[in-house]
Amino acid sequence: MQVKELLPGDKVTEQGNHAAVDFEVVSINKIGPRFWVTFRSILGIASASYPGDAYIAASR
């Protein structure tokens, strides 16, 4: 799914060195041509900036 299509509550799984980590989209804000996405996981809360047309493996 493209980053610009993400909604709060969408799930993203990232494979780490030893285990998969599940992230939940908390918020998404458009800032110019980019999107600031905030995620929550067992590791805490983190944010990242992405171009709107970037793809991310997410599910609803």
How is the topology of this model organized?
Layout: E1 11-15, E2 20-31, E3 34-41, E4 44-51, E5 58-59
Would you mind describing this structure in some detail?
By secondary structure, the protein is mainly β. It has one domain: Roll (SH3 type barrels). It has no helices and 5 strands. It has strands at residues 11-15, 20-31, 34-41, 44-51, 58-59.
Number of structural units classed as domains = 1
Sheet with the most strands? 5 strands, antiparallel
State the low-pLDDT regions, or none.
Answer: none
Q: What structural class results from the helix and strand content?
A: mainly beta
What integer value in Å does the Rg equal?
Answer: 11 Å
CATH class: Mainly Beta
Mean pLDDT: 93
Write out the strand line-up for the largest beta sheet, numbering strands in chain order.
4-3-2-1-5
Helix content: under 10%
- CATH-defined topology: SH3 type barrels
Annotation, overall tally of beta strands: 5
CATH arch. level architecture: Roll
